[in-house]
Amino acid sequence: MIDFKDSQISIANQCSLLSISRSSAYYTPKQVKAKDLELMRVIDEQYLETPFYGSRSMRNHIRRLGWTINRKPIQRLMRLMGLQALYPKPRTTKPHPENKIYPYLLRGLTVDSPNQVWAADITYVPMSRGFMYLVAIMDWHSRKVLSFRVSNSLEADFCVEALEDAIRKYGCPAIFNTDQGSQFTSELFIKVLNDNHIQISMDGRGRFQDNIFIERLWWTVKYQYLYLRAFDDGKDLKQGLKKWFRFYNHQRPHQRLNDCTPDEVYYGLPHPFAKVA
């Protein structure tokens, strides 16, 4: 949002208007070291299996793999990846007053139709040189991935783009469920939901089971696709994910869906193995 070529408004004034420090306007992210990228891959793989691991448990696991490492690098990398141990915790911190936390609306709810409940989540994606973040929006009933976006930062913009894209293509759900991440509690994201009269539901703090279907999606997309390939840049990753999600929606059957694909359930198509009269 900073225009360095603007001759009328100085950089200092632009930063003041945007409420950011001047030094941050000139900040260039440092390239992540190859050793850190390798370690982040190990952390990510283990986190998919044991999302209740905090930095201590993760450190102990990585030491057993032969690494000589203490807890601080693990903490730093888990923060960078947006990972934290998932288990019920006391509310030791309060959300920012501008970021309202909404109640969880899905407990005891029977979800039996498309567009009744949508859910969204963000995950870390390793690449050959660096990493990206992936957000996906899923229909709970059919498990269909309605929209996705990739980003090199955890700002809210790419989540808002994915949400607007899903609404544009498929209409609006009755309820939208997320975790309490800052991207989903941001003013921009909440405004899109409110403007479209969508009820807002948020997981309890540390309760990944509240959004279990999209957590299962991350396990599937990583072990069946992302970990089997190396992506050179964000464009390469986006094109690859577009093809894979098309396969996931159109061709990949789910046992929990009675061996139907997400598209077959979402659009109410006949069961592929139904007997012809």
Helical stretch tally: 11
Distance N terminus to C terminus?
62 Å
Query: How would you name the CATH homologous superfamily of the largest domain?
Result: Ribonuclease H-like superfamily/Ribonuclease H
Helix fraction by DSSP (H/I, runs of at least 4): 25-40%
Quick summary of this structure?
The chain has 277 residues and is of the alpha/beta class.
Describe this structure in words.
The protein is of the alpha/beta class. The protein has three domains: 1-30, no CATH class; 34-81; 117-266, Nucleotidyltransferase, domain 5, CATH 3.30.420. It has eleven helices and five strands, in the order H-H-H-H-H-E-E-E-H-E-H-H-E-H-H-H. The chain has helices at residues 11-17, 22-25, 34-49, 55-64, 71-81, 157-170, 182-185, 187-195, 212-224, 234-250, 262-266; strands at 117-127, 130-139, 145-151, 175-178, 199-202. The chain has a five-stranded mixed beta sheet with strand order 3-2-1-4-5, with helices on both faces. Strand 1 (117-127) and strand 2 (130-139) form a beta hairpin. Helix 3 (34-49) packs across helix 5 (71-81) and helix 4 (55-64) packs across helix 5. It is globular, with a radius of gyration of 20 Å. Mean pLDDT is 84; it is low at 88-95.
Q: What is the topology?
A:
Elements lengths: L10 H7 L4 H4 L8 H16 L5 H10 L6 H11 L35 E11 L2 E10 L5 E7 L5 H14 L4 E4 L3 H4 L1 H9 L3 E4 L9 H13 L9 H17 L11 H5 L11
Parallel strand pairs: 1-4, 4-5
Antiparallel strand pairs: 1-2, 2-3
Helix pairs in contact: 3-5, 4-5
